[in-house]
Design brief:
Layout: H1 13-20, H2 24-58, H3 63-78, H4 81-104, E1 113-114, E2 117-118, H5 133-166, H6 169-177, H7 182-212, H8 224-232, H9 247-277, H10 283-289
Helix pairs in contact: 2-3, 2-5, 2-8, 3-5, 4-5, 5-7, 6-7, 7-9, 8-9, 9-10
């Protein structure tokens, strides 16, 4: 990065360390922290959206919709997370490529599944082989994001469903007796009070989501764990910046990073609980008014 870093063999001490931490790979390492934060910022609302859909489906009057909602929540929660994280990106990738193969290469005969291989025409591949590297990385990230949303959406749906059931039924009946429609009861009575019961479970789910971000490494995304292992490993004289095994220090940096996220998250959810508990007939509201 700096002009004096052109020949690493001629520098040492603090200058050597300055050049070492500003290499291209280290810049990718620093960028990977942003990748984790972006994943959390997008996966949390996406999972909440999936959770709301699942919880509302479980409350539906239609048997088919109710069974689908219960099946989604029960099935995903019952499958090991790592198995689902590995299954969703592969399944979605093959589904997208299969549809593109049928639309763009319909004149080709034969099955795309040939033994243990999945073969589609070049035009159907996602991303295309001629696409730049950032397109491949973005595509992999979006598949990983969808996997996180589907998995944690099932847990969020179960939490929201329980919170909806925790709202006193007489309040809903009183709202209906005052002439409110089913939709008005949901938006004006059930939903505002539901958050008090849902936030403890959702805060725990957020912490689990934070701890699950290293699974990006298993999904082929170059995240903080990948770069910490790559940069911290022992380097010989064949490398520009040879050094001993420094993985301890790199993973210590990850420890501080995740503890910082945890610290800020706890205070954020505490403020949310105070906000949603105010004026509600719950134990949390009593603590706020004291």
């Amino acid at each position: 990065m700096f002009s004096f870093c052109a020949d690493p063999a001629t520098i040492d001490g603090f200058v050597w360390f300055t050049c070492y931490v500003t290499t291209g790979k280290h810049m990718a390492f620093y960028l990977s922290f942003g990748v984790v934060l972006v994943l959390l910022a997008l996966a949390a609302p996406a999972a909440l959206l999936f959770g709301f859909a699942g919880a509302l489906a479980c409350r539906s009057r239609l048997v088919v919709v109710r069974v689908l909602g219960q099946g989604y929540i029960t099935m995903v929660r019952g499958i090991p997370d790592i198995a689902f994280f590995l299954f969703v990106p592969v399944a979605l990738d093959q589904a997208f490529e299969f549809l593109r193969h049928k639309m763009l290469c319909g004149d080709m005969t034969g099955s795309v599944w040939r033994g243990n291989e999945f073969l589609v025409c070049d035009a159907a591949k996602l991303p295309l082989g001629s696409s730049p590297q950032w397109v491949h990385e973005f595509y992999g990230f979006m598949l990983a994001l969808l996997a996180f949303a589907v998995v944690f959406g099932a847990f969020a749906g179960n939490t929201l469903r329980g919170a909806m059931r925790a709202v006193p039924e007489p309040q809903l009946q009183a709202a209906a007796a005052f002439g409110m429609t089913r939709r008005q009861v949901f938006w004006r009575v059930l939903l505002p009070q539901m958050w008090v019961y849902a936030l403890p479970g959702l805060s725990n789910l957020w912490m689990i989501l934070v701890k699950a971000t290293p699974l990006l490494f298993l999904l082929g995304v170059e995240d903080v764990v990948y770069w910490a292992r790559e940069l911290g490993g022992s380097k010989t004289s064949a490398h520009s910046y040879p050094h001993d095994d420094w993985r301890l220090w790199y993973f210590l940096a990850l420890l501080v990073f995740y503890l910082a996220i945890t610290w800020f998250s706890e205070r954020f959810f505490a403020k949310l609980m105070t906000r949603f508990s105010y004026g509600q007939a719950t134990l949390g509201s009593l603590e706020v008014t004291r």
